[in-house]
Write a structure and sequence with these properties.
Elements: H1 2-8, E1 16-18, H2 25-36, E2 44-46, H3 54-63, E3 71-73, H4 81-89, E4 101-103, H5 112-123, E5 134-138, E6 145-149, H6 154-161, E7 172-176, E8 183-187
Parallel strand pairs: 1-2, 2-3, 3-4
Antiparallel strand pairs: 1-8, 5-6, 7-8
């Protein structure tokens, strides 16, 4: 991961990076965070299914304000409440820098405080309830908040991966390591049709 991130610094047009299902763990997440501190043009980052824990999530949270990310996927990792809260607190509040798509289900979210923080950010429109894969609700007669999977957001994930390879400005290359499941997906220009995303904040692609 260290060599990969060193190499990424020399790519000045990379807008999407998919490192999902590579088991990069906390160490890999830390290297990615250091890369984000260099303020690359990256718009979309997928770190799902990577066994990232609290340490890796904390390092990622600290660099969010310096990035231009609009799509962040940290779903299905091993991030617990304290780090989830830290991640939520560090989501950019400025309208032009807010996340448009946010995936975080499949982590170890249990505390009411975490759910309360998520609900506050949704109510403040810092997180878009229509494009976050978790929704917070209170059952009738219940004092406690609960989480549910916002299945409507899955369509955005599908659109995100179905960008036509025939598009002129779509360039990709895959690196596959023989006899392993590890793969890396690079997209130098990301023409995702964000018109499908509900109006929220400032669009970053015309």
């Amino acid at each position: 991961m260290e060599q990969l991130c060193d190499g990424l610094r020399s790519i000045h047009s990379l807008e999407m990076l998919d490192l999902s299902t590579n088991l990069i763990g906390d160490e890999g997440s830390t290297y990615i965070s250091e890369y984000l501190l260099t303020k690359p043009p990256l718009k979309a980052l997928n770190l799902s299914h990577n066994r990232i824990g609290n340490k890796g999530a904390d390092s990622l949270a600290r660099c969010l304000v310096y990035s231009d990310l609009k799509y962040l996927d940290v779903s299905f990792n091993q991030i617990k409440d304290s780090a989830i809260q830290f991640l939520l607190y560090n989501i950019p509040k400025q309208a032009s820098k807010r996340l448009l798509l946010f995936f975080l289900r499949g982590n170890e979210i249990k505390d009411q405080e975490t759910l309360s923080v998520l609900q506050i950010l949704i109510d403040a429109k810092i997180i878009n309830s229509e494009t976050c894969d978790l929704t917070v609700y209170k059952a009738y007669g219940d004092e406690h908040l609960s989480l549910a999977h916002n299945q409507m957001v899955d369509i955005f994930r599908e659109e995100y991966y179905s960008v036509s390879k025939e598009t002129d400005n779509f360039k990709q290359q895959s690196i596959r390591e023989k006899n392993t499941r590890k793969h890396i997906h690079f997209v130098s220009s990301w023409p995702m049709p964000l018109s499908i995303v509900p109006e929220f904040g400032t669009p970053f692609i015309d």
